[in-house]
Amino acid sequence: MSSKAGPAPGEAHEPDIAADLVRRIAAGDPAAEAALIERYSRGLLYLLRRLGAPPELAEDFHQETFRIALERLRRRGLDEPASLAAFLHGTARNLVSAERRKTARRRTEADPEGLELAVDGAPRPLDTVLLDEEANIARRLIGELASDRDRQVLLRFYVAGEDRASICADLGLDSLHFSRVLFRARQRFQELHRRFERRQPARTAAWTV
Amino acid sequence: MDHAYVEEHEIVDRYVMGTLPAAESEPFEHHYLSCPECLDRLALAEAEQRAFKRLARQEAEKLAAARQLALVAWLARLGRSRQAAVLAMALLVAVLLPWGLAVRRIGQGERELARAGAALEQERQQERQRAAAGSRKAAEAALEASRRELAAERQARAAAAAELARAREPQSNVPILFLNAERDAAPAGAPTVRLRLPRAPGWIVLALEIDPPHQPSYRATLRDAAGRQLWRGAGLRLDERDSLSLTLPSTLLKPGDHTLAVEGLAPGAKPVAAGRFAFRVLPPA
Question: Which residue among A5, A6, A158 places its CB closest to the CB of B49?
Answer without folding.
Answer: A158
